[in-house]
Amino acid sequence: MDRNSLLQLAETYGSPLYVYDTDVISSQYKKITKAFSKVKNVKINYAAKALSNLNILKVFNKLNSGLDTVSIQEVKLGLLAGFEPKDIIYTPNGVSLQEIEDVAKLGVQINIDNLSILELFGQKHPNIPVCIRINPHVMAGGNSKISVGHIDSKFGISIHQVPHIKRVVENTNMHINGIHMHTGSDILDIDTFLRATEILFDTAKQFKNIDFIDFGSGFKVPYKTDDISTNIEELGKKLSKRFNEFCKEYGKDLTLMFEPGKFLVSQSGRFLAKVNVIKQTTSTVFAGIDSGLNHLIRPMFYNSYHQIKNLSNPKGRERYYSIVGYICETDTFGSNRRINEISEGDILCFHNAGAYCFSMASNYNSRYRPAEVMMHEGKDYLIRKRETFEDIIRHQELVI
């Protein structure tokens, strides 16, 4: 993933281009498992929504990871990638009972976050074990769009509704085998996260036959030089100690689960784009690239920061640029960034492009989605072809 290698990949496969390094993925996976090595039973379920290419899923399967899914399509991708049904957990939100039942037929772990669906599912399928997603009413996360555990969130069943959950369980005689929460992404305050875990422990005590507790994820990774991130080692030390204490109180060795996505794949990814135009106005110098929010929407959607470097001129004098896309809408990747002098035809590299980048890409403006390349054991592999015009019209039907 050094400069020369990336430039060669851009030459070979064209731009724009996503590139993923599996060495980084493996390193991040080992980092989190090591942090919780003091717990007897730990299961890391990779959040497929972050990056769902089948080849990436296969990498996680070979690492002995589980898989966290939010749709029946992600479940099917996981099965196609070789995951056993028992290693997949399905945590939807706002889906129909029919989809949940269809997923249940595939044999994966079901996680329900809605009282009415819980009751309906329990009445029809009392013998299928179910995990409960709790909303701990804890505000966490770096952006309102990714803070999902607060009181006004659509996710989870309120901790104040636990008596209702217990009533449903008693009436249906269904089996609750796990308790789950997810507070939000970009967690920095470990103490706030630990307070939320205490809420989860208190909830777990009220269910006598659970097998696991899923603490979600949301660990922050660095986006720029000297950026702060979640201290996973400190969290591992503190939570492992408390989890082991809880298992003794509960009288059973439970499994500690996490479902990281960004933490595992964000830093593995690079996004390469070519500069189409340099445009100077009275106040700004724009570098317009052959991409836009249709390929990388995070800066516009989450106000997220992606470090941008000029691979073609790494020693040029630094100037200030606003990096913008070719979409007929304001799609600014970075404003007034200090970057080595940019010329038309240069290749720019966006860092932290592994998570929620290609997976959120679209065909807006009828543009093609880019190709994906995976660096694995020293070799580069094309793992998704660049789209063509035929892909744009493939499912359209002319009726007039």
Written account of the structure:
- One of its GO terms (molecular function) is diaminopimelate decarboxylase activity.
- Its cofactor is pyridoxal 5'-phosphate.
- Keywords: Amino-acid biosynthesis, Decarboxylase, Lyase, Lysine biosynthesis, Pyridoxal phosphate.
- This is Diaminopimelate decarboxylase.
- It is a single chain.
- The protein starts with a helix and ends in a 7-residue tail after the last helix.
- Strands 1, 11, 12, 13, 14, 15, 16, 17 and 18 form a nine-stranded mixed beta sheet that branches.
- Helix 9 links the parallel strand 9 and strand 10.
- The longest helix is centred in the middle third of the chain and has 19 residues.
- About 2% of the residues have low confidence.
- Helix 2 packs across helix 9 and helix 6 packs parallel to helix 7.
- The chain is an alpha/beta fold and 400 residues long.
- Helices cover 30% and strands 24% of the residues.
